[in-house]
Design a protein that fits this description.
The complex is a heterodimer. Chain A is 53% helix and 8% strand. Chain A is mostly helical. Chain A has a three-stranded antiparallel β-sheet with strand order 1-3-2, covered by helices on one side. The longest helix of chain A is centred in the C-terminal third of the chain and has 27 residues, at 90-116. By secondary structure, chain B is mostly helical. The chains are: A mainly alpha, B mainly alpha.
Chain lengths: 145, 347
């Protein structure tokens, strides 16, 4: 990795960042450290779509399956006729399946978010160096395009 | 044709001609004329009130998308007067309601017509006040809120009086809410179609915060498809589980005979199983074809559902229904065209 480019002013930092992109440095090789959120960075360095949606999909789907499996299997295991309805009555089971879809989907999304953003690891979210209020650009090693 | 539509009096002439034709058709003593008019009225009033409600709801939360179709959506306001006229044409039909001729306070012909007419006129007055206010001027939000309040009561009365009392003594406390949610759902569908028609295909979305107005409307349609499904299921499950003869009869009459059974399934697909997966992905939300299909599916779902509500207890005349629907569609298209012309002239 090349040495960090440190800027005291946001405009100069953004100007250099745009310059790097214009020069053909791939966005994946550029890392920035800012003292606060800078929305312009997202426009200059558009990221790919987050993988967290796959966690949401898998979690929600497993919640639906668990909801139906849980209600159907417990009803079959203890078959009581209630209100003249069939033992396996899907309309009321849909409520449990829906609730578990939301629950599993939300928990799985949150777990995916933690995993992908390396939040449980303090080393992952803290930069090795301390730059205070400065704006920093780090370019990882690699062939320039 | 365009030259005729440009004239200031053209709308008044068209409304008078359409009104006279519909009055002639519906007042002719032939079976099914009143039922056809009721079906056309229910669909028409849901769409017209829904369009204005969509604009009002957007205005109250400073929605960005409202700006692109506000003029077109609010141009339908005069059609609320047409709806009031149609309600007057339904007076002879009220005699065929099961409670007609029996003593009662709430279900009495004059009070029945009077309260529905009063709220339609009130909806027109509040909608007009809202339409007259500048888009981001002072008092616009309070005028929008007043319209929304009247809209909710008007649609609730439509559900309770014109639809639910057809099967008196069947009652559902949720039907009013179901109707106004469905109406605003239809309003968002019309907004999306108008956005596509008058603003064209949005440019590709790049970067943070560059979502198009069409995407915003698609998100609203997507959200309301879930809301609709929730309300539908809440009613269905309660009736299905309770299994009380006075409640379940309403469903049994529709689910035990063909083609109503198939139409019930079609309503589920048109209002939920088509728009929900179609608008699920981000890219689909700004795809003109997908959004058009979802919006048309929602509007046809509302029409088919109104038919399913009425079909077991009301007779229809296909010719009268076709005339009523064509007249109302023409009026709708003309007011929206004139609204868009005004918007482009102002721009």
């Amino acid at each position: 990795m090349a040495g960090p480019m440190v800027f005291e002013e946001k405009e100069k930092f953004l100007e250099r960042l745009r310059g790097l992109v214009r020069e053909g440095v791939p966005g994946e090789r550029i890392r920035v450290i800012t003292p606060f959120g800078v929305p312009e960075v997202e426009e200059i360095l558009p990221r790919g779509r987050s993988k967290v949606r796959f966690f949401a999909l898998v979690g929600a789907a497993s919640g639906t399956v668990t909801g139906f499996a849980f209600t159907i299997l417990t009803s079959l295991s203890w078959p009581l006729i209630v209100g003249g309805k069939p033992i396996v009555s899907l309309p009321p089971f849909l409520i449990i399946a829906f609730a578990l879809t939301i629950l599993f989907g939300a928990l799985s999304t949150f777990a995916g978010f933690l995993l992908l953003s390396r939040l449980p690891s303090l080393r992952g979210i803290r930069s090795g160096e301390e730059f205070g209020n400065a704006f920093v650009i780090l370019v990882e090693d690699g062939e320039r395009q | 044709m365009t030259a005729f539509l440009e004239k200031k009096w053209s709308l008044a002439v068209l409304i008078a001609a359409a009104g006279a034709l519909m009055a002639f058709v519906s007042l002719t003593p032939a079976p099914g004329r009143g039922g056809s008019l009721l079906l056309a009225f229910l669909f028409f009033v849901a769409v017209v009130e829904g369009c204005i409600a969509a604009a009002a709801a957007g205005a109250t939360v400073n929605a960005r998308w409202v700006g692109s179709v506000r003029k077109e959506l609010l141009s339908v306001t005069p059609l609320l007067l047409v709806a009031s006229f149609l309600l007057l044409l339904l007076i002879p039909f009220v005699d065929s309601y099961p409670w007609a001729g029996k003593p009662g306070i709430w279900l009495r012909k004059d009070f029945f017509i009077g309260r529905n007419l009063a709220f339609l006129v009130l909806a027109y007055v509040t909608a007009r006040r809202f339409a007259a206010a500048p888009a981001d001027g002072e008092g616009t939000k309070s005028r929008a809120a007043w319209y929304l309040l009247v809209f909710v009561v008007s649609q609730t009365l439509t559900a309770f009086d014109l639809v639910m009392s057809l099967e008196y003594p069947w009652i559902s406390a949720l039907l009013g809410g179901y109707f106004f949610i469905e109406s605003i759902y239809g309003g968002f569908a019309v907004s999306a179609l108008l956005c596509l028609l008058f603003r064209g295909t949005p440019p590709a979305e790049h970067g943070h915060g560059s979502r198009s107005d069409l995407s915003d409307l698609s998100i609203l349609m997507f959200g309301f498809s879930l809301m609709w499904a929730g309300l539908f299921f809440a009613q269905f499950l309660t009736i299905w589980y309770g299994n009380l003869p006075e409640e379940v009869g309403f469903l049994a009459r529709r689910l035990s005979v063909s083609p109503l059974r198939e139409l019930c399934v079609a309503v589920l697909f048109l209002l939920f199983f088509i728009p929900f997966p179609a608008l699920l992905s981000t890219r689909a939300k700004s795809n003109p074809l997908v959004v058009s299909v979802a919006a048309l599916s929602i509007l046809s779902g509302i029409l088919v559902e109104r038919y399913v509500f009425l079909a077991p207890v009301v007779r229809f005349s296909p010719v009268a229904l076709a005339i009523d629907v064509v007249c109302l569609l023409v009026l709708f298209a003309v007011v929206v065209y004139k609204g868009s012309r005004e918007a482009s002239l102002e721009a």
